Amino acid sequence: xxxKNIKRLIIVIILIFxxxxxxCSNLKFDSIKNNDxxxxxxxxxxxxxxxxxxxxxSIYKFNVDYKDMKLKSINLLDSADKTTFVYxxxxxxxxxxxxxxxxxxQNLKYRIxxxxxxxxxxxxxxKVFNDNVFLDEANTLxxxxxxxxxxxNKNQKIIYxxxxxxEFQNSHELEKVDIQDTNDAKxxxxxxxxxxxxxxxxx
Length: 203
Hints:
Blueprint: H1 2-55, E1 59-64, E2 69-75, E3 95-104, E4 108-116, E5 124-130, E6 133-138, H2 141-144, E7 149-152, E8 157-166, H3 175-187, E9 192-201
Parallel strand pairs: 1-3
Antiparallel strand pairs: 2-9, 3-8, 4-7, 4-9, 5-6, 5-8
């Protein structure tokens, strides 16, 4: 009789163990499925955000008026190619572009000027295009603006595209440039500047 009770106890223990193992396995499987679903959902969301950011174009629009000055403040990082910078900062290898669009309801002369609000990396350079025609290249936006003036007719749209780039300097002959790039990358996270447009009567 005693042996039968022992056997029954062993069987009960084994059954309890098996039931416990089955329950744990199901919980683990459900957890894995949920985690996988959340991961895939996050991945899909991240890919969409990435695509949206990469396709985003930075366009700054100005309506040019007679004897009127317009101002916009810009952070260069907002126009960066998102594949060329990390940790929300510009650095050697970064590049990007933005557009300045001018409109007017009268015939005017105009000019565009820039004013830097903080230090610029010394080896950050700029190119400007007017309706996709290359105009000039300069080491500063202030210098570049010398090519950004002319006439605008009533209801005309003028678009300037500005490309900027901070190239890697790998040559051993450019050791001083490498040092400068390293220092600028440590000390300058962003480059902020103002854009001004002026309208002047043609006559």
